[in-house]
Design brief:
- It is a single chain.
- Strand 5 and strand 6 form a beta hairpin.
- Helices cover 50% and strands 13% of the residues.
- The N terminus and C terminus are likely disordered.
- Strands 1, 2, 3, 4, 5 and 6 form a 6-stranded mixed β-sheet that branches. Strands 7-9-8 form a 3-stranded mixed β-sheet, with helices on one face.
Amino acid sequence: MHSRDRRLGPIVLGLLLGLSFACALGRPSQVSPSEIPELESRVARDPNNGDLVLRFAAALFADGRCDTALVTARRGGELSPRNSLGPLVVGQCLEQAGRYPEAITTYNAFASLYPEAPGIGAVRGRVVLAQRAHATSIARRALAAEDSLSALTPDPETVGVLPLVVAGDSAYEPLSLGLAEIIRADLALLQRFRTVERLQLQALVNELALSTTDLVDQATAVRVGRLAQAGRLVQGTAAIQRLDETRLEASVVLRSGEVTGPASAEGDFRDLLVLEKELVLGIANALGYQLTVAERQRVLDNGTQRLAAFLAYASGLSAEERGDYRTAALHFAEAVRQDPGFGAAQERHAAAVGADIMTQATPSEITTVGTAVDAAMPSPGVVQVADAFVTAVIDVSGTQGESATAPGAGGLTTSTTVDPPPALPFTPRTITVIFRIPLP
């Protein structure tokens, strides 16, 4: 949690100002440890009032008394199961204790049971933050136990996909994570294999202070695989020299250090999503796996078919990895606008909005943060950020149906102007999202 006096960005500041008016209308207000005696007395008189019990738990949490808050919040959650305060208090107390898997289970169970509950965005935001903290803790434990892990034999059916090395203009760098994640998601559809989550591998890369180019080193890849307990790692490159010269290549590094012959796909950049599917089929072959007809179709159907949506999604993953959830939310929203049926982008957008606000909330704001996130959540496809101008680094290609301007400085650009819904508690401002392709 950040200190109370941290300067809030325009979204959260506006939301919190709006909430001050909302409190007068009977909506949740911030909680204070000073309320504990009164709340304790009221709960004693009305022990079956779940919302009251949960506010008492929130006050205990704000006072740093997580042991008591945890028990109280669980009781309140039984009485008011749809109130998001329950999982928010329980989950954050578990996080503070380093019990991340339990916290993530708590959040996900609530989201599964009550996907439309008030405050659900805040719960989903906490999932993102808890998953990242958990991945970091796993990576640090693995490094501390590296000698003992060396004696273990990683499961040969567990596969990890390293960030790809992007060769060419730096504008395409977000494809490093974007392509790695869609390749991992495609491989996860194959019945035989288990895949290592992107966050876990990235946490190891971060803890080892590795650059993306380090990951093409055979010995480094073997070490990362051993730490992640993955029997096989996919390492690859994306070479984009010209719009009509794009080559994807990937090899599989075995736990023995042996590297398979590379699978590859090449063609026009505008066919990037087709090339990725070709590459995945080649990787499966390198893994010694023959896809069933049904698996092949699932791979081909997985993700978005819209290049513009994928590129925005890749930019969102890149921003998310930097911890810039606000920019990530903007890119994910653009991905949804480009492809309203892009489920992964929808989920990541909602989570990024929640994570952005949750990272700036104080313990006393736990009772209001759910309302703040709900207010910040736009309708699908609507970009909702105040006073922002964002330049994405990669293409919305002319073949995807977007209108393109004439080439200008730095490349071909297209722009979309979107206004936030006027009901939000901050002044709506027009924002422009520009996608740029570096020209050959």
